[in-house]
Amino acid sequence: MIIKSIEDLKEVKEKYEPLIKQRLGHRNGLGLTQILVCSGTACHSSESREVRLELEQELARRGLEEQTRVVKTGCFGFCEYGPIVMVHPGEIFYCQVRPGDVRELVEKHLIGGQVLERLLYHNDSTGKRTQTIEDIHFFQAQRRIVLRNCGVINPEEIGEYIARDGYFALADVVLHKNREEVIEMIKKSGLRGRGGAGFPTGRKWELTAAQDIRPKYVVCNADEGDPGAFMDRSILEGDPHSVLEAMTVAGYCIGANQGFIYVRAEYPIAVERLELAIEQAREAGLLGKGLFGTDFDFDLSLRFGAGAFVCGEETALLHSVMGQRGEPRPRPPYPAQEGLWGKPTLINNVETFANITVVLREGWEWYQGQGTSTSKGSKVFSLAGKIYNTGLIEVPMGTTLRTIIFDIGGGIPGNRQFKAVQTGGPSGGCIPAKYLDLPIDYESLKETGSMMGSGGMIVMDEGDCMVDIARFYLEFSQDESCGRCTPCRVGTKRLLEILIRITEGQGEMEDLEMLEELSYDIRDASLCGLGQTAPNPVLSTLRYFRNEYVTHVRDKRCPAGVCKALLHYTVDEEKCIACGLCAKACAAQAITGAPKQPYRIDPEKCTRCAACVAKCPRQAIQKGIRKDVADLGGEAGIYAGAGDTENRATL
Amino acid sequence: MAEYDVTGETHKEQESPAKVVQEKKDPLQEDHRSKQFADLDRVIGRYSRERGQLIRILQKAQEIFGYLPEEVQAYIAEKIDIPVSEVNGVVTFYSLFATEPKGKYTLNICMGTACYVKGAQTLMNALKEELKIDEGETTPDGVFTIKSTRCVGACGLAPILVANEDVHGKISPGEIKKIIQTCRKGESVDNKKH
Q: Regarding beta strands B144-149 and B105-110, do their DSSP bridges make them parallel or antiparallel, or are they unpaired?
């Protein structure tokens, strides 16, 4: 069916609405049981597809396929407990359902009419199991605005998106509004780019719309490269049409007829759903020629990333969309002036587009009332690392880190101490415990030396070494540096070398100043965002965890017990039963011993591979933090190249 | 097919004679090769009409050939009429493209931050130790390649190992052996089939 008017949309909505209403808790006597199975990447990886197929087979076997429907959904966000299966009516929320559980589930719940207790969410702090999604604190504590369709609709069915008032905003804009009006609305809403830097979205639209050159293009940046971030992926997998709709609105407003979605090839499910969504939108006449019977044409095409982090930077992304090497170029000219093939181009990120539909649906007045004075609306974060509830969450701007980590996230497992939270990926920094009560928005995060970034949050505990984390991020940035400009190409390499030296116990006190000085140089002189922000992990850890650096350098100790070269392994002589398994496991032949006598590890030969630890039946081998500095000579810190100021000129 | 013969021949001149002889000796392989190029022609036909689809073509070509040898790069360059240096520039820029053949199983350890703080480095060390090769290398029997990847986005399952398409979540160094054994079993089943 080709949709030409708001009436047509209403017709589709009426058809699908009962299904959706039931999923939202209405007991509308549908006479139908719906089983929602999460098909996001995390659940998919833990066999949710097999669960779904098994369910379908089991239902067919028992002749229940008439009154039961199995539905694919996007990410619920509760990734730690996947695969998630939800049964409506009743909103019964089952966790960690394996294919082997399906038969029992069908028997007990669908035939017996009883809840299968064993698979309900178990709250470790209260020791109770909870039946419905409403009873789970993780969901209660959130406000899902952008993610409102994820886990509710089937992302592969455009009708279900329309039943959630989808494409109504587009119809309204195309049929009843002029472009200035819409841009003004976006501006007044206060929406800022969700890709990291937080540029006002309405302003960007206005700049692109003001250009007098045709054609123009709309680009969606779905190159979510930050390790540990999966917000955009979940939106694309769970609610792809919201992005399509917003891009079409953007096309109308700036005067573009062609859009591109630049998506990572590493996200196969997102790619598949996008392809399907574009196809369905074309069939429904919501993409293509003459939308809603007007003379406005708009179409979309996918472009694929091929594994280069720098392509998240907008000018690099443009090169990649055109099929070239993804190297950045200096700005100005900004993409709004000269973008794809030299034409004005609007680039927004996935979450920003998903927010556009919210602004249009709820009105700018409502949107403007959400969040803090400078950052409006809500933000999606992906929580990962040392935290109970790994997953995807959405909270209003201005929520404190403590609420996110300890309330929604459930805190740190294993009674360990919180040490830092890393936001903004390789461009961000580590925020220590003293800022846990800071309400977060673009500005406050920047003040702590980190940044909003796209929304990845990695929680670290006392077992993580901050010097090692800085080294980890620098290794990433150095590897992903495209090599176009020297400060980033050479600077990150030198930073990494210094950090490696420190983690290997060869650092000197001057290195700390060198790290800082070099970091500022790279930040100030690099061409694009990658280089300008690459030193942030170093600067923020130096700022808040300087002691840890000093301990590595001066005492040659790694307090967290991570840096291998600074560890030593010893045999607890009382526990040792002289079985000799450790000596056999040791590839470096560093362990010697004799029958009935405790074995010994020679620290000189030991490569700290920990193979012996795994083999010991009595846990007699202990990891210790090295205290002896004596074996390191005075020359240990001397290295080649990039040493002090005069050598740096030769770079 | 005529065009293929032309480029194929020019390329063969650059290769060592031994390799040419070997290729000629195996008609089965030759047949497979021309089928691959026919597939590639279809891909080029489909995508070259649109602007800026070089990356897509290369991705598809890699799916067909398993990697992107010089021969394939030159072929694509000729077909879509751009300098081969430009194709090579793109191939070497993006980490998803390989110019060396990969093993039958590519074992990818996710080195995203979430996996890293949950011990991905230990996994990587265990894997290297087990297969006696370094990251980016392939075992001499051509079965395994070790790689590291940047975040698959399934951080709830950290740490993660991806064996070809299969995602193994929350794994320990001990489980690595099992995964390798399972792959090896699959390998021996395949051999028997032949």
A: parallel
Q: Are A85 and A51 in contact (CB under 8 A)?
A: yes
Amino acid at A564: K
Instruction: Quick: pLDDT tens for A525-560.
Output: 999 999 999 999 999 999 999 999 999 999 999 999
C-alpha of A581 from chain center: 43
Q: At residue A390, what is the residue type?
A: T
| Domains of chain A, earliest start first | 12-136 (3.40.30.10), 166-368 (3.40.50.11540), 378-461 (3.10.20.600), 466-554 (1.20.1440.230), 564-625 (3.30.70.20)
What amino acid occupies position A423? T
The mean predicted confidence, pLDDT, of chain A is: 92
For residue A214, the one-letter residue type is R
Which chain B positions have a beta carbon within 8 Å of A229's beta carbon? 151, 153
A306, A323, A476: residue with CB nearest B53 = A323
Q: How far apart are CA B78 and CA B140, in angstroms?
A: 33
Please give, rounded to a whole number of angstroms, the shortest distance from the CA of B83 to a CA of chain A: 12
pLDDT tens, A28-62? 788 899 999 999 988 998 899 999 999 999 999 99
* pLDDT tens by residue, chain B, 194 residues: 334 444 444 444 444 444 444 445 578 888 898 999 999 999 999 998 888 899 999 999 999 999 999 999 999 999 999 999 999 999 999 998 999 999 999 999 999 889 999 999 989 988 998 899 999 899 999 999 999 888 887 888 889 999 888 888 899 888 898 899 988 887 655 544 44
Q: Which of B51, B53, B153 sits opposite A230 (nearest CB)?
A: B153
Pairs from A612-615 (Cβ < 8 Å, separation ≥ 24): A612/A569, A612/A581, A612/A582, A612/A583, A612/A585, A612/A586, A613/A569, A614/A585, A614/B173, A614/B174, A615/A581, A615/A582, A615/A584, A615/A585
DSSP track, A189-205: HT-B-TTSS--BHHHHH
Q: What is the dihedral of CA A327, A330, A331, A335, to 10 degrees?
A: -30
The candidate with the shortest Cα–Cα distance to B105, out of B1, B23, B187, B20, is B187
φ, ψ of residue A129 in degrees (nearest 5):
-100, 140
In 3-state terms, what secondary structure has residue A526?
coil
Subunit contact B90:A325, Cβ cutoff 8 A: yes
Say how far residue A31 (Cα) sits from the centre of its chain. 39
- Are B146 and B107 in contact by the 8 Å Cβ rule? The answer is yes
What does the alpha-carbon distance between residue A614 and residue A617 come to, in Å, rounded to a whole number? 8
> How far apart are alpha carbons A556 and A128 in whole angstroms?
47
- CB burial of A484-518 (b: ≥16 within 10 Å; e: otherwise) equals bbebbbbbbbbbbbbbbbbbbbbbbeebbebbeeb
Interchain pair B94, A326: CB under 8 A: yes
Residues A346, B91: Cα–Cα separation, whole Å: 27
Predicted pLDDT of residue B25: 58
Neighboring chain A residues of B59 at a CB cutoff of 8 Å: 265, 304, 306
Q: How many CB atoms lie within 10 A of CB A625?
A: 16
> What does CATH list as the number for B105-193?
3.40.30.10
Look up residue A218 and give its two tokens: 């709309």
| Interface contact A323-B94, CB threshold 8 A | no
Minimal Cα–Cα distance from B99 to chain A, Å?
14
**C-alpha pair distances (Å), A244 with each of A116, A169, A240, A274, A335:** 39, 12, 7, 9, 21
Task: Please tell me what DSSP assigns to residue A132.
Answer: B
SS3 A42: helix
Residue among A246, A446, A262 at smallest CA distance from A352: A246
Domain ranges for chain B, please list them.
Answer: 2-93, 105-193
CA distance A305 to A328: 15
Ramachandran sector of residue A541 (left: φ over 0; alpha: ψ -120 to 50; beta: rest): alpha
Q: Are strands A345-349 and A217-222 parallel, antiparallel or unpaired?
A: parallel
Q: How far apart, in whole angstroms, are the C-alpha atoms of residue B118 and residue B114?
A: 6
